[in-house]
Design a protein that fits this description.
The chain contains 18 helices and 9 strands. With about 475 residues, the protein is of the alpha+beta class. It folds into 4 domains: about 110 residues, no CATH class; about 160 residues, Nucleotidyltransferase, domain 5, CATH 3.30.420; about 60 residues, no CATH class; about 60 residues, no CATH class.
């Protein structure tokens, strides 16, 4: 059946000539990514921004890892849905194509996951923002960033923390000990973990207030609802996007219990407008960020009034539809009237449809298909840095789609198959339009199967289509 060989018989040479090793070169999709980055001068901008964070080489010591390599590795995590830095480092070490994308040879050691953590801590949040703005400038130069209509929305990110590790802020008692005590007082066997869980789930007045409980491993994580509706430790990533192109202008990871319409809403919008003015300083202030679109969770009369006073049009629906304007003071009445008029106008309805198309797409790409729905880091600053690189990668995919027609590795792989499918379908319909014997074969097959009713119903409908020639339709007489 097969020939068995021992390890000694199959042992290869111990020494291999370096010239005979396969060359690590980026292939397919990653070659296009490299071409795009070289075209916009990405590496030079990164070195200019990150150089102040690195020590002078003349002082001695081991040279640091190129920050361009760090950003490219996180891009790989975005494109291939890798959630953790450990999985990103493992993938980069295994793939010959990705080694070429990073500039490493076959025998070179790629950066370890611990090195990624060191670089993230070394670079400040302001430097990550500058890197994000560098990519926005490339989008603007290619006409893929307008900035006139902005959309703002938030989603849910599962924190790298557990509810079981919660501690009460006053007495440091764990949540599980607290529940066991309540179960014991209610007559439930506290040694049965399943019974205690059922009791905790159904006990009346069950509340886990963030003011009372904290996770010692990640104090900034808050108790909230996940995307699936379960209770867990969460954060809230928030995007401000260009509704004309889908480009992400501003990203921030907020506390899990922060309200969308809190007092900082106006400042967050103005920060995004400031980013746009920095990206396109020649653009007039009156043409940037003139409209802000959001869902009803962002509606607050005071915040809406502040944005309207700055000349920003708000397309945000009022959740209290039955609120009467005559019950409000004069200024609030005018603010509410303008807000309702904007949402009911044809242009406002069109912008709300764009919000669902462009704004939600960024969350789907970054969280569900970019490996960021479940956090592997802790702390708002670390998560914001990681999300900024993911937003940079998302904007890069928009640029790739504008230049090559593909924006992700999946689209690159599916492209040839889709083109082949389109060609086969076109050839099939051309063959049908020439009056082929396909209809005769179909009629005989249906008759052989004894499906008379389907034969009498399906074939006349098929004959009515405009794709068939007259000769082909004549074959359909029953």
């Amino acid at each position: 059946m097969f020939e068995r060989r021992s390890k000694l018989e199959t042992q290869e040479e111990m020494w291999v000539v370096a010239k005979e090793l396969p060359k690590a070169t980026p292939d397919g999709f990653y070659r296009r990514v490299n071409q795009t980055l070289e075209k916009i001068g990405f590496a030079e901008q990164v070195w200019t921004i990150c150089t102040p964070a690195y020590a002078d080489a003349a002082k001695g010591g081991r040279p640091g890892i190129d920050p361009v390599v760090y950003l490219k590795m996180l891009m790989v995590g975005f494109f291939e849905n890798l959630p953790s830095e450990r999985s990103i480092a493992s993938r980069c070490a295994d793939s010959l194509s990705i080694r070429g994308f990073l500039g490493y040879g076959l025998t070179d050691a790629t950066p370890d996951h611990s090195s990624l953590s060191v670089i993230r801590r070394r670079l400040s949040l302001e430097q990550f923002e500058a890197l994000h703005i560098a990519l926005l400038r490339a989008l603007y130069s290619h006409g893929l960033l307008k900035g006139r209509n902005l959309g703002i929305d938030s989603s849910v990110l599962e924190a790298n923390a557990s509810l079981r590790e919660l501690r009460h802020r006053n007495d440091e008692k764990s949540y599980w000990e607290y529940v066991r005590q309540l179960a014991r007082e209610a007559g439930v066997d506290d040694s049965d973990d399943e019974a205690v869980r059922r009791f905790d789930k159904k006990r009346p007045g069950r509340k886990t207030r963030n003011a009372d409980w904290v996770n010692p491993h990640d104090p900034e994580a808050k108790v909230g609802r996940t995307k699936q509706g379960a209770t867990d430790m969460v954060y809230k990533p928030e995007h401000v996007s260009d509704l004309d192109s889908g480009a992400i202008v501003q990203v921030e990871v907020r506390s899990g219990d922060a309200a969308d319409n809190d007092a900082s809403l106006n400042q967050r919008v103005l920060t995004a407008v400031g980013v746009l003015l920095e990206v396109a300083p020649e653009a007039a202030a009156g043409k940037v960020g003139t409209t802000v679109v959001a869902d009803e969770g962002y509606f607050a009369l005071e915040q809406i009034d502040q944005m309207q006073s700055l000349g920003i049009r708000t397309v945000i629906a009022d959740p209290h539809a039955r609120r009467r304007r005559k019950d409000l003071p004069g200024r609030a009445r005018r603010t509410l009237w303008r807000a309702r008029a904007a949402t009911r106008s044809e242009s406002g309805k069109a912008l709300l449809r764009k919000r669902g198309e462009h704004l939600e797409r960024g969350f789907a790409h970054m969280l569900d298909h970019g490996g960021l729905r479940r956090a592997t880091l802790r702390g708002r600053e670390n998560l914001t840095k990681r999300h900024m690189v993911a937003a940079l990668s998302f904007n890069l995919s928009l640029l790739l789609r504008g230049l090559f027609g593909i924006g992700t590795a999946k689209q690159w792989l599916a492209g040839p198959l889709k083109r082949l499918q389109a060609r086969l379908m076109a050839a099939f319909w051309r063959w049908m339009a020439r009056g082929s014997d396909f209809v005769d074969l179909l009629s005989r097959l249906l008759a052989a199967l004894g499906i008379g009713k389907l034969r009498r119903v399906f074939l006349p409908v098929l004959a009515s289509t405009s794709r068939f020639s007259t000769g082909c339709k004549a074959r359909l007489r029953l």
